[in-house]
């Protein structure tokens, strides 16, 4: 069984740029959620994708967008990066009707 | 908006002492989950509680869900150095898929 993987591990971007983060869900999982975790804080829900459709969204602006592909992998896109977007971005996968989420190792994004 | 508060923010204990973290929600939760995040790591699922007043045990860990389904606690008996990390509660409201995380309690254990 393959766990949740994310790429890249670390990323440094400049304010105003755009970034794409990637996530491969655990084998057999059809749901992916994305979270932003600032230093010393709990993860904040960005959105969730279920079978390629956005299934729910947290309090994040539209410049945060995502995709889920037929193989259930997912992308998080952030446009017009701001300094406050610097954080650990986590994706978590789960399967139908099971609320337990399996987190990936995260992507550390630094915006300068 | 919906909030989940956790206390204390930090707890520094001597190995062998007990530890408890408390979680309180501003709204009634449909269920609550607990996660552990080691330093530099990612959250790892520990348990889910669904029923009012539910109590579950995992070896030295005891989890409780309040009668009103607005609060929860995690108690660790006789802490060990391997218990070091940040413990998060995370709740869901109604049938929403949105998981609301608490701010976490960071546990440090002196050997």
Mean pLDDT of chain A: 93
Approximate helicity band of chain A: under 10%
Low-confidence stretches of chain B: none
Tally of individual helices of chain A: 0
Instruction: Flag low-confidence runs of chain A.
Output: none
CATH class division of chain B: Mainly Beta
Question: Could you outline the blueprint of secondary structure elements for this entry?
Answer:
The complex is a heterodimer of chains A (112) and B (111).
Chain A: E1 5-7, E2 10-13, E3 19-24, E4 31-37, E5 44-50, E6 53-57, E7 64-68, E8 74-78, E9 87-94, E10 102-103, E11 107-111
Chain B: E1 4-7, E2 10-14, E3 19-25, E4 31-37, E5 44-49, E6 55-58, E7 61-65, E8 71-76, E9 85-92, E10 100-101, E11 105-110
Parallel strand pairs in B: 2-11
Antiparallel strand pairs in B: 1-3, 3-8, 4-5, 4-9, 6-7, 7-8, 9-10, 9-11
Descriptive key words:
heterodimer, A: 112 residues, mainly beta, seven-stranded mixed beta sheet, 0% helix, 51% strand, B: 111 residues, Immunoglobulin-like, six-stranded mixed beta sheet, five-stranded antiparallel beta sheet, globular
In short:
With 112 residues, chain A is mainly β. Chain A has strands at residues 5-7, 10-13, 19-24, 31-37, 44-50, 53-57, 64-68, 74-78, 87-94, 102-103, 107-111. Chain A is globular and about 40 Å long.
Task: Describe this structure as you would to a colleague.
The complex is a heterodimer of chains A (112) and B (111). By secondary structure, chain A is mostly beta strands. Chain A is 0% helix and 51% strand. In chain A, the strands form two sheets. In chain A, strands 2, 4, 5, 6, 9, 10 and 11 form a seven-stranded mixed sheet that branches. A four-stranded antiparallel sheet of chain A has the order 1-3-8-7, with no helix packed on it. With 111 residues, chain B is mainly beta. Chain B contains no helices and eleven strands. Chain B is globular and about 40 Å long. Classes of the chains: A mainly beta (112), B mainly beta (111). Chains A and B meet through strand 4, strand 5 and strand 10 of A and strand 4, strand 5, strand 9 and strand 10 of B.
